[in-house]
């Protein structure tokens, strides 16, 4: 019985340790996604209109996915990600709030940061947020999966231009 208990403990540890590592990495990578690549693309467009900034953020989202496909899959496809982890919740909430703010600016909602606990965004805004995220995420996911070779097989500069053009057509 003792050997069985030790074997069960070891088996559990081999499941728990990778899951714990995934939660930590996933939270860190959410912060990287929302604080690094996406914001860098948007910051490069700070002098432009809100729509151009939103398109630049979508491009940053796709570029992050293409440059970090395993992390992108972990962040959005892991069955073991602990969405109750405080760091992950904070990072995911901040990224989502940034998206809501960007979309609100495009719609003419000003530059105030719309946070769920401060005000209740209207249904129309939230539909636009869902559409924007779905387009950017779907495009990134298709590119990572190799399902959009008409864009994914282009040289890097042309690929980025094509991604931005797709986003421009729908945002």
End-to-end span in angstroms? 62 Å
Radius of gyration: 19 Å
Name the poorly predicted regions: 1-24
Counting DSSP H or I runs of 4 or more residues, the number of helices is 7
- Biggest sheet record: none
Can you tell me the overall shape?
A: globular
Strand content: under 5%
Short description:
The protein is mainly alpha-helical and 171 residues long. 77% of the residues lie in helices and 0% in strands.
List keywords for this structure.
171 residues, mainly alpha, 7 helices, globular, disordered N terminus
Describe, in plain words, how this protein is organized in 3D.
This protein is mainly α. The protein has helices at 2-43, 50-67, 69-77, 86-106, 123-144, 149-152, 156-170. The chain is 77% helix and 0% strand. The chain is globular, with a radius of gyration of 19 Å.
Summarize the helices and strands and which ones pair or pack.
Blueprint lengths: L1 H42 L6 H18 L1 H9 L8 H21 L16 H22 L4 H4 L3 H15 L1
